[in-house]
């Protein structure tokens, strides 16, 4: 269990405008000990917990961050349930799950993404599917207005292009597509310059799958899908994942 006590001490100390030395003097320890706890490099002795909680006017459970830990466990359980439902095709259950989860974690970007994804997978009449699509678009637009996670925002900027297209809003799709970063200014291209050793090799290997998808996609658009197989042979030397084999099969390579 990753206790949050160090983060909690720092937050409480700063909220009360206390120095590490003042907290240390009250407990009879060195300020270096307080600094170590706040850097999460160690925990206070268990005998100090009552004194710490009394000093800050909270319970020992609050000091340990038990509420936050319980919340984190609940959040992870929700996302595991979503993944299980998604694999089994239980998309309607996932829509209900995500709506309830967003009542607990409002505007959470990952939950919003999972809600929009599930909405677009729902079956129904043509009118119902159109309504689900419009709701998915509204959810994605919410992510783009308020979401701060750059990776989630980037994925949403890409996905919403196709949601607009399916909704008959070609101009909106095109406007959004032109806001996306180009292939040169991608995370994978930066990491192979910034990382070293095994991390650099892993980043390079990880970049090959999206690169292969892009190659197959663009060669297909040019009517040269037959070249995909040869390029994949060079990139992967026969050591292909299921995803890459699926791309190769789709390209007819």
Output the keywords:
mainly alpha, 434 Repressor (Amino-terminal Domain), 74% helix, Serine Threonine Protein Phosphatase 5, Tetratricopeptide repeat, 3 domains, 253 residues
Textual characterization of the structure:
The chain is mainly α. It folds into 3 domains: 60 residues, Orthogonal Bundle (434 Repressor (Amino-terminal Domain)), CATH 1.10.260.40; 106 residues, Alpha Horseshoe (Serine Threonine Protein Phosphatase 5, Tetratricopeptide repeat), CATH 1.25.40; 65 residues, no CATH class. Helices cover 74% and strands 0% of the residues. The chain has 15 helices and no strands. The two termini are 48 Å apart.
- The CATH topology label of the largest domain is Serine Threonine Protein Phosphatase 5, Tetratricopeptide repeat
Mean pLDDT: 89
**Could you tell me the number of beta strands?**
0
Mind summarizing the main beta sheet?
Answer: none
Write the layout of secondary structure elements.
Blueprint: H1 5-15, H2 20-27, H3 31-38, H4 49-56, H5 60-64, H6 66-88, H7 91-104, H8 109-120, H9 126-146, H10 150-166, H11 170-177, H12 187-194, H13 197-221, H14 227-236, H15 242-251
Helix pairs in contact: 1-3, 2-3, 6-7, 7-8, 8-9, 9-10, 10-11, 12-13, 13-14, 13-15
